[in-house]
Amino acid sequence: AVTPAFRPPERSDFTLTGRPGASVVILGGGIAGLTAAYELGKAGYRCTILEARHRVGGRNLTIRGGDVETDLDGRTQRAGFSDGVYFNAGPGRIAQWMVTMDYCRELGVPVEVFTNQNADAWIYNESAGMTEPVRYRTAKADVYGYVSELLAKATDQGALDAQLTAEDRTRLLAFLQSFGAIGGRTNGWAYTGTSRRGFAAYPGAGNDVGSPLGAPPALSDVFASNVGRYFSFEFGYDQAMLMFQPVGGMDQIPRALAKAVGTHRIRLDAEVTGVTDRGGAVEVTYRQGSRQAQLTADYCVATLPPHLMARVPHNLGTAVTAALADFPVTAAGKIGLEYRSRWWETDQRIYGGITETDLDLSHIWYPSHGFHGKRGLVVGYYNTGANARAYSGLTPEQRRERAVAQGVKIHGDKYRSELVTSYSHAWDRTRYIEGAWTSPRYGTAGYNLLLQPAGRVYFAGDWLSHEVAWQHGAFVAARSAVSSLHQRVMAG
Ligand SMILES: Cc1cc2nc3c(=O)[nH]c(=O)nc-3n(C[C@H](O)[C@H](O)[C@H](O)COP(=O)(O)OP(=O)(O)OC[C@H]3O[C@@H](n4cnc5c(N)ncnc54)[C@H](O)[C@@H]3O)c2cc1C
Ligand SMILES: CSCCC(=O)C(=O)O
Asked: How far apart are the C-alpha atoms of 14 and 482, rounded to whole Å?
């Protein structure tokens, strides 16, 4: 039998057929712009990409030693990372079903597992009064155990008889006993803790049974600590293991796309300043340094973030401007902390994965590659919204100090003493991006308007998809735009 009811969401062998040879100017060299150029190029179109930044990739940004970035506040950082150390400041993970994986395969970008969930990573909820972190495995054992105990008791006492048949009850109780590792009826279905909680010292040879963590805290204390707060993250269809990352940094994807497109077709440091639909062609003006230039093409694919495209003078109509301006934008930030030793592996036995906190740093990511290497890079914060803005308002030094002061609470002194260098990225303060991702108003006239070309101008970007904040969204939106452009050309 074939795998039931599953169709890859996007054909991996996407190709436009026919070679019409029209010219297309593409605004923005992020994933959407590069993909538009790549797919149109394969079909024989003559494409030119205008990208305002000094490199392609847009939000797909990997920072290495020597990279220099200046933000909207004029703060310049020069990354001091060692050779081989990299920091994915934007995207970091890919789900298996995403079309991003097909592009990695087609472009020859090798991928490796990205560890999105780790039983040995920590949970730390300061606001719940925790004074030390708890391992994920321990938190899960206790929460699953107590929830199972409660549900088993209610079931066995007949509280759910209106919902359950006698057979359902038997099956549910059997499931709960295994799921929560609870006692049976004679033990009152009690959760008393098992080896699932983990050990202070793991079992050894001969008669060494190790030092089990032992009895769990009281039920009420487990719920009060709120350690279950983040369990559902890994249930998400977009975040469930296995996840993947390109070997050597996420920017291997735009690099490979740019190579396939041909770097001679990409103009960097080229800021688009105007778009005019002339009826028979599109005229785009742009600025390269002090030079003003102009480019005319048969069609245009515009992939700037919508809130920035809204500010570019054009003659596409006020409804288009209003629709572009109607995308609420989220802030996000990350810091990369390079350490001279991989103490999280040697001392804490954490090989990849994520620690979850209620601190303003939100998440701490450990590297999913380079295990047992000499150095390594930890993502010391990955936060959004108000937490991201709190950090983006600080200088890079202040950001590092704040992140390290928080991280020490979980990891101890090495979090500070082993630190070599850091680089932080504030997406809301990044020129030509000004935000992390948007929340499209699906179903509105404005959103739907932008799915149609405005004259000879097509729009694309993750913001025109149902996978915002994922490269998948940028890929499929670009495919959609070039497909309708191509249909029109072939029909004409
Ligand atoms: C912190 C963070 C984490 C993320 N995590 C993930 C993840 O784990 N996995 C994943 O798949 N995705 C993730 N994403 C989302 C992913 O980065 C985006 O969905 C994708 O990169 C968007 O591509 P795009 O081409 O639509 O937009 P962009 O990358 O924003 O491209 C737009 C381009 O337009 C350029 N531009 C702007 N103004 C002008 C102008 N006037 N003239 C010329 N060019 C201009 C910009 O410089 C930019 O290059 C994350 C994003 C962020 C910010
Ligand atoms: C937290 S979901 C939005 C950003 C993203 O795609 C990611 O970090 O996985």
From this structure: 11
Strand residues in 21-89 grouped as ranges (E): 23-27, 46-50, 62-64, 68-70, 76-78, 86-88
Per-residue pLDDT of 289-335, as tens digits, reads: 999 999 999 999 999 999 999 999 999 999 999 999 999 999 999 99
| 60 and 30 Cβ atoms separated by less than 8 Å | yes
Q: Is the CB of residue 28 below 6 angstroms from any atom belonging to ligand 1?
A: yes
Percentage of residues in the chain with pLDDT exceeding 70?
A: 97
For tokens 């090495």, name the residue: 414
User: Does the CB atom of residue 93 touch ligand 2 within 6 A?
Assistant: yes
253 vs 35: CA distance, rounded Å? 10
Task: Determine if the pTM surpasses 0.90.
Answer: yes
Q: Whole-angstrom Cα distance, residue 63 to residue 115?
A: 20
For residue 80, give the nearest of 94, 98, 91, 66 by alpha carbon.
66
DSSP bridge partners of 64: 86
Q: pLDDT band at 99, cuts 50/70/90?
A: very high
| Ligand showing the shortest atom-to-Cα distance for residue 90 | 1
Residue 418 marked in a binding site: no
CA of 368 to the centre of ligand 2 (A): 17
CA–centroid distance, 13 to ligand 1, in Å, is 24
Q: Dihedrals φ, ψ of 171, to 5°?
A: -70, -40
Nearest-angstrom CA–CA distance, 369 and 84: 11
* Cα dihedral 393, 396, 401, 402 in deg (nearest 10): 30
Burial letters 147-159, b for 16+ CB under 10 A, else e: bbbbbbbebbeee
